[in-house]
Amino acid sequence: MARNRCLILSSPSEVWGLLSDGHRYGEWVTGTQQVLAADPHRPDVGARLKVRVGAGPLTLDDTCVVRVCEPRHRLELEAKADPFGAARIAIKLVPWDEHTLLTLDWHALRGPGTRMHGLPVDYLVAVRNGMMLTKLARIAVREHEANQPQRPTAVGGGRGPRSSQ
């Protein structure tokens, strides 16, 4: 099993909004080339997301099915990418002050990944998932900052009043 954690400087509701929008999946999931179809009731249990993954001309279609959904707290997916089998992806969101501590666990369920399970495979998956969470965090923070009210800025060079003696 590969496990990643990331503190995201956005609220669990804001992060959940990104996780639950199937059409935005390709923005933060490393290796996604295109979202082919997203069930409109995602992230409800049973909802499917069909994506094309790969690098360059080497692609395959992947189906991601929601297995567990606890809004703003937990999302578990089963990613099926034949002929490579399937994996369980468990995402947990924990409020951390006004931010979000996100934990992502990845575990092979079926296929060759179950036989290659161990340090080398888990390390590679953890590196990929770390890149993915970094992208998710950047998007969440950018959108959080864009939704904040603008503060007035000082005019005149930023120095305080001068005193004369």
TrEMBL record:
Where the record annotates domain Activator of Hsp90 ATPase homologue 1/2-like C-terminal, the positions are 11-109
Disordered as annotated region, ranges: 144-165
* Pfam families according to UniProt: AHSA1
Q: Which domain of life is it from?
A: Bacteria
Q: Where is the composition biased (Gly residues)?
A: 155-165
Q: What family is it from?
A: Belongs to the AHA1 family.
- The entry's protein name is SRPBCC family protein
